[in-house]
Specification:
The chain is of the alpha/beta class. It has 15 helices and nine strands. A hairpin with a 3-residue loop joins strand 5 (250-255) and strand 6. The longest helix has 20 residues, at 225-244. It is flat, with a radius of gyration of 25 Å. Residues 102-115 have a biased composition (Low complexity).
Length: 390
């Protein structure tokens, strides 16, 4: 495959996965296409690109072009590839300065997010088409993942990159100078001595913040098979979001008939490769459920002196327990005693008429701080906020 055809294929892939609502999402899609073409676009570079483009003006194509060139390219070799992808992505046959990001490019990059029947045909006004496609993306965000077709799941996968990830914070023992807080007597005294004993301005200090560990326990048993792929994709997004902020404090495990650590498998930057690696790591995919036993293994090995102590532990499961429910309740109580906060994510929680009457769920609820839904991308967005506030 030649380089040009490879880039064109990359652009097509990005175009078919492009969410459409705002100019920022279009620019974000461009970074995806650029990354697929081989340019090392990190999360920080993409964020810098969005900020630079916003400062220059999102409707100014020339400014956006130069903003991307300055922030996304890391070597001379990247410049040529950047121009090729830029040309293909925005279809700038007449030059970047002659078209604006707010019209034709958005139509081109989002044309595949809706079926042809929903686009209204070529004679419709461009604005109506964009609004219709944006509405379809919003509808897709709220759809139950278990009811999606393969094509809809593929389009939804591209939207995971829009999830905002923030890790919970905890107070550190270290202190640093600050505008207010606790009086720093030493610094105040030293400042006074430098003035030959004359009174100086008061100095203050405060405790610093550091990320709190997050542990994700994903049920991959048969009853969760419809959601397992999306949940692992979410775990990958949370882990990569943490890495983008300079921390690796996110651990992921699979729960089934046994416990499997997936942190290393999900460390790959590309989500597709990460999910393939995770699938090859888990030996009991779509098998039975022994939540009580696997939680006991987790707590015995990574409990009081390990990862779970002081962490935010998120359990993704429908609570269908085939083992001893009393054991599950005991282990959840152990987990609740050592963790900072326990969040239980149930895909059925957000469905109309759901009642937590299953034996497993009734056993764990007394030891759960937050019982939230996990059946759609919108529910995942709410979950990331719950984790950030924990």
């Amino acid at each position: 495959m030649t380089e040009s055809s490879w880039i064109a294929e990359s652009v097509d892939r990005a175009a078919t996965s492009e969410p459409v609502r705002e100019a920022e999402e279009i620019l974000l899609g461009f970074t995806v296409a650029l990354r697929a073409a081989g340019v090392s676009v990190t999360h920080d570079r993409a964020q810098a690109y969005l900020e630079a483009a916003a400062m220059a003006g999102l409707d100014d194509a020339t400014a956006a072009y130069h903003a991307g060139q300055a922030t996304l390219c890391g070597s001379p070799a990247d410049l040529d590839r950047y121009d090729q992808v830029y040309e293909a992505y925005f279809d700038h046959r007449a030059g970047p300065a002659r078209r604006r990001l707010s019209s034709p490019p958005s139509l081109q990059t989002t044309s595949s997010i809706l079926p042809e029947s929903e686009t209204g045909g070529s004679g419709d006004a461009d604005e109506d088409v964009v609004q219709a496609r944006a509405s379809a993306a919003e509808v897709l965000r709220h759809r139950d993942i278990a009811t999606l077709t393969a094509n809809e799941k593929a389009r939804l996968a591209a939207l995971f990159g829009t999830l905002s990830v923030r890790l919970p914070q905890r107070r550190s023992g270290r202190q640093r100078p600050w505008r207010r807080g606790t009086l720093d007597a030493s610094r105040t005294m030293r400042a006074s001595l430098r003035r030959m004993g004359e009174p100086a301005a008061l100095e203050w200090r405060r405790h610093t913040q550091r990320p709190r560990p997050v542990v994700l326990l994903v049920d991959v048993s048969g009853s969760m098979s419809s959601y397992a792929d999306a949940l692992l994709r979410l775990a990958h997004r949370i882990g990569q979001g943490a890495r983008g902020r300079g921390t690796t404090g996110v651990e992921t495990f699979a729960l089934g008939t046994r416990l499997t650590r997936l942190t290393r498998a999900l460390s790959a930057r590309d989500p597709e490769r990460a999910l393939v690696a995770a699938g090859q790591t888990v030996p009991d995919w779509s098998g039975g459920t022994r939540l009580g036993e696997t939680l006991k293994v987790f707590l015995d090995r990574w409990g009081r002196r390990g990862l779970a102590r002081g962490a935010v532990v998120v359990v993704f499961s429908d609570g269908w327990e085939r083992g001893d429910a009393a054991l599950l309740g005991e282990q959840m109580a152990r987990l609740h005693r050592i963790a900072h906060r326990v969040v239980w994510v149930n895909p059925h929680r957000g469905k109309s008429g759901y009642e937590p009457v299953q034996v497993g769920i009734r056993a764990v609820l007394p030891s759960v701080d937050d019982f939230v839904a996990g059946h759609s991308l919108a529910a995942f967005a709410e979950l990331t906020e719950v984790i950030a506030r924990a």
